[in-house]
Amino acid sequence: KLIEDLLKYQQTRAVEPAKLAEVALDEVARRVVREHKLAALARGIGVDTDIRAAPVLGDADRLRTIVDNLVSNALKYAPRGGAIRVRVKHDGNFVRLEVIDDGPGVDRDERERIFESFYQGKAPPGGRVKGSGLGLAIARDYALAHGGRIEVRDRADGARGACFRLTLPAAASVVAQTVQGPPTTLPATSGK
């Protein structure tokens, strides 16, 4: 797994033209949730979804990798018997995907560092979660390559846990930018 992660991370650094096409991010999210169903069941983790139509222009494989890394990360940190939530919605010129867990959360002083290569953060209560420390770095690089961003936010309900938000330009806004002019600026974040 570590070798696969290293090779995948190296590919993010390679200059390679992305295979751009309209991708239904909602379908990508549904597929990833289905693929993780057994892992969630094995740990008694509930998966709640609110997935709505959300077309983006991008590379389907890379978008799938982003979503897969976020969902697998949430499953690693959610406690046995806990829950994760996957939300996808089209919001004006943007598409937002949120993966929320009820694990230990991410300390504010680590929120940028967790996207660094090989950084794994503090051990959660009950032990260390094994990983390569590359999944979130890859997800961030792929999001940036799509003109988007990925960030850790406080949960909207104020509960303990982490909320990872992926924001990408919607497919229609990307096409409009090509025809009409400069790229749309991503909305500012408030940290909540």
Give an account of the 3D structure:
The chain is an alpha+beta fold and 192 residues long. The chain is 35% helix and 23% strand. The protein has 6 helices and 7 strands; from the N terminus they run αβααββαββαββα. The protein has helices spanning 2-13, 25-35, 37-42, 60-77, 135-145, 171-180, and strands at residues 21-24, 46-51, 55-58, 83-91, 94-101, 149-153, 162-169. A 5-stranded mixed sheet has the order 2-4-5-7-6. A two-stranded antiparallel ribbon has the order 1-3. A hairpin with an 8-residue loop joins strand 6 and strand 7. The longest helix is centred in the middle third of the chain and has 18 residues, at 60-77. It is globular. The relative contact order is 0.18. Mean pLDDT is 81; it is low at 178-183.
Features:
single chain, five-stranded mixed β-sheet, alpha+beta, two-stranded antiparallel sheet, 192 residues
